[in-house]
């Protein structure tokens, strides 16, 4: 227990350059997850995020096998996955089944590539559960560049995206290009999800992309307040998860998921309490 909560060791590790780099990556990722999360929740895209993260694993595994940059490989895999899912699932009734089919194929391919890779086992494990030492200057540059592009696109498209998310039928009747917006948003989500693979890992990046936003939507119906709360919750989960993982040297994803789930439980209790008071 002392090893798990060794404050002195944690403070020493916080001064290391690679830890500071990881914290910066987590902060950027938390911002992306927070601003995209409420729209993901309102559009019922949680399963899509999971599918995209697993296909980001396939791209990262391919890059690992070929000796390329893992972050770029994961990003390419996630964007391809988002485009494929958007093109194959024209009808909402087909969406879940298409994700399941593409997810199964991509995950099997990723497992095969990881098996073929003969390098260090820690590299394979890092793709699944995340590792803070995986962040470097090139990774931060890629993360920052993609974050800027995603945030600019979201600022330009936020109003029609929100309209299409809340009431897609009326938005379509008003002439909003819902199909094109869905495809663009899927690519943005894919990019953000892929960027989280190095930090959180492909298996549990869903916790950062969905859980903080789901918690925020529990306590407020305002899109602006939900976005602000989701950013705060995602930052606490991502940065706090890294800080808590330092002393034990445990996978970051374990602490990120624990913090985000605890936040969700607190918001759930708050929303239930409000419901009882109104009743």
UniProtKB/TrEMBL annotation:
Signal peptide: none annotated. The chain crosses the membrane at residues 12-41, 61-85, 97-117, 137-158, 179-197, 203-221, 228-246, 252-271. Its main location: membrane. GO terms for cellular component: ATP-binding cassette (ABC) transporter complex. The keyword Membrane applies. It is found in: Cell membrane; Membrane. The keyword Transmembrane helix applies. InterPro entries: ABC_BtuC-like, ABC_TroCD. GO terms for biological process: transmembrane transport. Pfam families: ABC-3 (PF00950). This is Zinc/manganese transport system permease protein.
